[in-house]
C-alpha cells in the first residue's frame, strides 16, 4: 500500500541564483518535496495545528480545504515510495501529476536542492517543467544510482539515501 499525505506549501519560482546553484534552468516554477517549497502551517479540524511535513502531513484532504489558498500557495499530494506508476493513483480531479522527486529524511531533495552535484545519477537535462523526473522507472534507477555512486561508503553524502516521492498538486479548491 502506498503512503499518501497532503500538505499546503508556498510556490517556488526560481531566480538566477537558484539556477546557478542547482543547474536546473529555464523552469518557470519548481515543485518539490523539499524545504524550497516552504511548508505552511494549517489549522486543522477542531483547531488542531498541523505542520505538514511527512511526519505531520494530513491524510484527509478536508483538513486543507477548510481555508482558501492564497495566490502563492499550493496543495501538494505526495505518495512516498510508490510501488506503481502514477497512472494507477486516483486523486481528486483538481490535482495534476507533477513528477517524481528524490528526497531524504531531512526534506532535502537530491534533484532540486543539491547543487546539481549528483549528475552521474540524475539526468538534470531531462527534468520536466517542474524540475522533476517524469518517468517512474527512471526515478527508481536514479535512486539506485544515487546510493551506489554517492552513498556513504564511497563518497559519504547522506543526501544520497532518498525516498521516491510521487508529487501531485492543485492551485485551486
Fold and architecture overview:
The chain is of the alpha+beta class and 173 residues long. It has one domain (3-170). Helix content is 16%, strand content 21%. It has 3 helices and 6 strands. It has helices spanning 16-22, 61-65, 136-150, and strands spanning 3-10, 42-43, 49-50, 73-80, 96-103, 163-170. The strands form 2 sheets. A 4-stranded antiparallel sheet has the order 1-4-6-5. A two-stranded antiparallel ribbon has the order 2-3. A hairpin with a 5-residue loop joins β2 and β3 (49-50). Residues 42-53 have low confidence and may be disordered.
Offer a quick outline of the entry.
This protein has helices at residues 16-22, 61-65, 136-150, and strands spanning 3-10, 42-43, 49-50, 73-80, 96-103, 163-170. It has 173 residues and is an alpha+beta fold. The longest helix is centred in the C-terminal third of the chain and has 15 residues, at 136-150.
Helix content: 10-25%
Name the structural class.
Answer: alpha+beta
pLDDT averaged over residues = 83
> Which spans have pLDDT < 50 for at least 5 consecutive residues?
42-53
- What fraction of the residues are assigned to beta strands by DSSP? 15-25%
Instruction: Record the strand order, biggest sheet.
Output: 1-4-6-5
Distance between the termini: 27 Å
Shape: globular
Order of helices and strands: EHEEHEEHE
Query: How many individual domains?
Result: 1
Number of helices: 3
Number of strands: 6
In this structure, how is the largest beta sheet organized? 4 strands, antiparallel
The radius of gyration computed from the alpha-carbon positions, rounded to a whole number of angstroms, is 16 Å
